[in-house]
Amino acid sequence: MLPKIEMIDLRKAFDGKRVLDGVTLKVAKGESLVVIGGSGTGKSVLLKCILGMLTPDSGVILIDGQPASRIDRREFLRHFGMLFQGAALFDSMPVWRNVAFRHLHGRRRVGKAEARALAVAKLRRVGLTEAVADLYPAELSGGMQKRVGLARAIATDPDVIFFDEPTTGLDPIMAGVINDLIREIVTETGATAITITHDMSTVNTVADRVAMLHEGRVRWEGSTSEMETSQDPYLDQFIHGRAVGPIATVR
């Protein structure tokens, strides 16, 4: 079976600094890949290349076996969802309009009543009541905002979902709640998922497979069960948060 997403020898530089230096990865349909690595290792740039927000200097991105440069990007994005690092909600809109944004403004629009009903259903799926629907983002806690962002990410039942540092800014208990929700939703929907994170609790909860980026390259790749037995010194330093090791601590 063809991978849902495949990256082959991706390279990208900014002002002479190479951020991606030959990244090759495959993500199977329905698989949850978590990409780890320190700041500046190319994780966010990798996502932006897949999304078409950035164009790689060289290399190929395949979606269902087709070069991303040749597919209808609007069609791909219609089947795509994303949970942003800071939730990225529209402050001027009530929660339900945030969740139903694509239903209200996308190519396949629905009426206001139907859009609200769809939004409420997704809010319930992430553990929020209908009473939250008419509140504004500023009236919500950080954890509730993250749940709303997750509801928006799954609002159109996407085939592919990206999670950008999903637990940033959350306390350990709420981070655990969000991680569990992500795992449940990915399993229920069969969506292909790519998560970038520094949080090892996210890795252990969400990942089917893990890839570690270092200096723009895939340093290590494998299952979560293989991480603890790996002899790779870079991976060992990162997952255990050691100050001493091959990864420079001054950036």
Molecular structure report:
With 251 residues, the chain is of the alpha/beta class. The chain has 2 domains: 172 residues, Rossmann fold (3-Layer(aba) Sandwich), CATH 3.40.50.300; 72 residues, no CATH class. The chain is built from 10 helices and 10 strands. Strand 9 and strand 10 form a beta hairpin. Helix 5 packs across helix 6, helix 6 packs parallel to helix 7 and helix 7 runs parallel beside helix 8.
Tell me briefly what this model is.
The protein has 251 residues and is of the alpha/beta class.
| Rg, Cα atoms, Å | 18 Å
Q: Which superfamily, in CATH terms, is the homologous superfamily of the largest domain?
A: P-loop containing nucleotide triphosphate hydrolases
> How many strand segments?
10
Mean pLDDT rating: 90
The geometry reads as: globular
Q: What share of the residues lie within helices?
A: 25-40%
The main pleated sheet reads as:
6 strands, mixed
Architecture of the largest domain in CATH? 3-Layer(aba) Sandwich
Proportion in β-strands: 15-25%
CATH topology of the largest domain: Rossmann fold
Q: Which blocks of ≥5 consecutive residues have pLDDT under 50?
A: none
What is the element string, with H for helices and E for strands?
EEEHEEHEHHHHEHEHEEHH
Number of individual domains: 2
Count of helical stretches = 10
What is the distance, rounded to the nearest whole angstrom, between the alpha carbons of the first and last residues? 41 Å
So what's the CATH class of the largest domain?
A: Alpha Beta
Structural class: alpha/beta
Going across the biggest sheet, name each strand in turn. 6-7-8-3-9-10
